[in-house]
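Researcher: We plan to redesign the surface later, but first we want a full-length starting point. Tokens attached.
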């Protein structure tokens, strides 16, 4: 066999081998990469506007709002919609105070819709009462027009207005104001501070009926009653450790870190048990401080640690490298998660204890601001597919 024939035979063998291998390879099943898990549905929002009468006779109402804020927040923190926890935003208006501008209808937007709960608390504690001409239609119209309610009907949009003068006072027709609010998907709940029948006579129920809400009356001068539990002191101790996990940064860092401590102290004005309610709120997902706390900010998708200027960091971080900063924040995040978990566990025991004590005492349900709001929220949230955890 000459060399030419040998070479040709060798090429033929290679070609056959290639076809066999290639054919086998082509008959093997092709496994596609597993698909990425679908993004969770976007979080819905609970948008809640609180319109408070701050005329001279309303000190009791303001006290209830200050002392019951965190109980209301804790209830809202248990909400879910289609398995996703909603974002919470609260706005605050005052009306009926002679210290406000007459040209504005004696109305002031104290806080726009915000997720900054310390700001809401701080602003509630800044309210004072004085004289008053209370124009319900005007403040409803103002809140409807001024606040960022968003588009669409998926979010839960609520206004709560509380006062004790006729609902029909002022130059703005309250029926028109309530109808316009309803057309924007806003539900209006009216809370008369006084006798239920008196509120009926003075138009408060008509306002809620026009905007598919609830009419309620409360005893606004009643004091909030708290039941002490054996878990309160431990939760209070954990709050000290919790505050140490906050890493202030940026132009707001120092002042807002100090404000956090101030609002802790403000909550304690109404007793340790009220402070405990605030601490429980701080352990929940609705208490977020992304604008001044690096731990919360670092959880945001678009946050970049390298873009935080050295001078905007706390002193203990200014000499760190970027990797050291990231490690430090991760460490603080772990500490906070552990403390929050412990607070939640203790609070579950606390709620059970308080429920049993209330049962023993045969305590009657008071017509208070928090209970009026919580009952209305639960009822109206059903229409938007919101659910709430069962509490003790």
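Model: Full-length starting sequence:
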């Amino acid at each position: 066999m000459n060399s030419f024939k040998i070479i040709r035979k060798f090429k033929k063998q290679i070609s056959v081998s290639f076809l066999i291998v290639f054919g086998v390879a082509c008959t093997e099943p092709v496994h596609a990469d597993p698909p990425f898990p679908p993004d969770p549905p976007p979080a819905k929002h609970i948008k809640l506007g609180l319109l408070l009468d701050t005329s001279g006779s309303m000190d009791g109402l303001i006290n209830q709002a200050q002392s019951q804020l965190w109980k209301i927040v804790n209830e809202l923190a248990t909400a879910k919609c289609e398995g996703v926890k909603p974002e919470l935003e609260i706005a605050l208006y005052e009306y009926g105070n002679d210290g406000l501008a007459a040209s504005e209808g004696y109305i002031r937007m104290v806080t726009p819709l915000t997720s900054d709960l310390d700001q809401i608390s701080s602003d509630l504690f800044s309210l004072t009462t004085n004289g008053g001409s209370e124009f319900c239609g005007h403040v409803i119209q103002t809140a409807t027009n001024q606040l960022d309610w968003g588009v669409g009907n998926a979010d839960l949009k609520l206004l709560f207005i509380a006062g004790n003068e006729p609902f029909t006072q002022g130059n703005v027709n309250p029926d028109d104001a309530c109808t316009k609010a309803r057309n924007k998907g806003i539900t209006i709940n009216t809370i008369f501070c006084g006798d239920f029948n008196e509120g009926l006579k003075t138009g408060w129920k008509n306002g809620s009926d026009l905007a598919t809400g609830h009419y309620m009356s409360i005893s606004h001068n009643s004091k909030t009653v708290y039941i002490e539990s054996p878990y309160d002191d431990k939760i209070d101790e954990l709050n000290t450790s919790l505050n140490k996990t906050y890493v202030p940064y940026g132009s707001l860092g120092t002042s807002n870190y100090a404000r956090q401590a101030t609002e802790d102290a403000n909550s304690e004005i109404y007793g340790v048990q009220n402070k405990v309610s605030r601490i429980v709120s701080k352990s929940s997902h609705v208490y977020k401080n992304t604008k001044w706390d690096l731990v919360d900010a670092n959880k945001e998708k678009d946050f970049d640690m390298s873009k935080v200027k050295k001078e905007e960091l706390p002193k203990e971080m200014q000499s760190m490298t970027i990797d050291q900063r990231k490690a430090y924040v991760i460490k603080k995040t772990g500490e906070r998660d552990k403390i929050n978990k412990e607070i939640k566990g203790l609070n579950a025991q606390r709620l059970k204890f308080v429920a049993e004590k209330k049962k023993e005492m045969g305590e009657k349900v008071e017509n208070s601001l928090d209970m009026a709001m919580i009952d209305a929220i639960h009822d109206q949230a059903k229409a938007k597919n919101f659910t709430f955890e069962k509490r003790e």
